[in-house]
Amino acid sequence: MTYQQLKQDESQYVMNTYGRFNIAFDHGQGSRLWDVDGKTYIDLTSGIGVNCVGYNNEKVVAAITEQAHKLMHISNLFTTAPMVQVAKTLVQSTGMGKVFFSNSGAESNEGAIKLARKYSFDKYGEGRSKIITLLNSFHGRTITTLHATGQSRFHNYFFPFTEGFDYAEAGNLADLKAKADDTTCAVLLELIQGEGGVLPLEKEFVQQVEAFCRERDLLLMIDEVQTGIGRTGSLFCFQQYGIHPDVVTMAKGLGGGLPIGAVMAAKTCCDVLGPGTHATTFGGTPTVCAAANAVLDIVNQPDFLSEVVKKGEYLKNGILAIGSDKVQGVRGSGLMLGIIVDADARAALISQCMENGLLVLTAGTQAIRLLPPLTITYEELDEALAIFRKVL
Q1: Which of 114, 183, 227, 336 lies 20 to 30 angstroms, CA to CA, from 50?
Q2: Which helix (H) or strand (E) holds 4?
Q3: In 169-218, beta strands by DSSP E
Q4: Strands 327-333 and 261-265, how do they pair?
Q5: For the residues of 220-273, what is the DSSP string, one character each?
Q6: How sure is the predictor about 289, in pLDDT bands with cuts at 50, 70 and 90?
Q7: Burial of 303 (0-12, 13-18, 19+ CB in 10 A)
Q8: How far is it, in rounded angstroms, from Cα 255 to Cα 129?
């Protein structure tokens, strides 16, 4: 079907909840995509950080195919090898305790919120359920995770929201301490605020928050939905901060293109959610976990993660070397970068990038966000930089 035919059917049959770009994609290979009209693009978005090992990755496709022939899905009343192996790899790679599998980042954060509140209820009884998040944070689109999100523009339309959240200023320990009263049970942080503008937290602040949480017996929960699975140059971003979280949430890159999320808890709280307290039909389904195992086999290697760091520096330095007065800076870590531009010019720059065959994202009010596949080649990075140079 042509683009126009697809858009006509879409307008008739699909709810209009996304501000979609005027492109319909047909297939991809590595870090390249082809639209239905045959135009080629270099993709620096990877499905908003999902396709972390690129399109049509042979290892991931083979793992999915093999598992689909054996067992696509089975109830969580039974055990399957792919699920157990993903959990084992995650735990052994981080020193955490155990894993619960979900289907998305929002669902993972919902699970973490439930775990924190039950942990506190089991130890202290009712009345200790508030969770502190940061201003400018983003934690999901469900009723609960919308309210956990520290951006007031999301707190609209869908009243009443789930209560029990307060918001502190990033980097301001005094503000966080002031918000954490006797009703507080946990603190939930993104180490790099992705949707908020690719804003990294300072290491000292995060370590101070951890110390405060230990002092008050608050669970320290890290939202790694966007930063996890090698995105910042380590398997998880928290491993660069010298901290030991109580809970880590993840999704996006873990499935390499298939929907999966997970809640990983430390040994001190990994048994809080017992039988009957939390569940999800498709969590840990074999086909998706087979893909996740293939992704982890690729990503969770020192040489691979080292290359993510090198590619990120190469891309960042290449953008800065263009020397355009439209670029005010580049921030982020690994292959999670934000190019800071004038807010009024951003939409036109992104449009011109797409016209020239380069896909990029937005974040916050000024950032052009880059989340390329971690497997992107230097040749593809050079092509992307050439398009940036032309556009800027």
Answers
A1: 114
A2: helix 3-13
A3: 184-189, 192-193, 199-200
A4: unpaired
A5: EEEE-TTTTTTTTSSSSGGGGTT---SEEEE-GGGGBTB--EEEEE-TTTTTSS
A6: very high
A7: exposed
A8: 31
Residues 229-268: pLDDT tens digits? 999 999 999 999 999 999 999 999 999 999 999 999 999 9
Query: What proportion of the chain, given as a percentage, has pLDDT over 70?
Result: 100
Per the confidence metrics, is the pTM higher than 0.85? yes
Token digits of residue 234: 């380590």
Q: What φ, ψ does residue 331 adopt, rounded to 5°?
A: -130, 165
pLDDT band at residue 1 using 50, 70 and 90 as cut-offs: confident
Sign of CA dihedral 90, 134, 149, 21: negative
Joined tokens for residue 130: 């508030």
Question: Residue 131: enclosing H or E segment and its boundaries?
Answer: strand 130-134
By residue count, the chain amounts to 392
What region does 33 belong to: left with phi over 0, alpha with psi -120 to 50, or beta?
A: beta
Strand ranges (E), 51-123: 98-102
pLDDT at 169: 98
C-alpha–C-alpha distance, residues 144 and 149, integer Å: 9
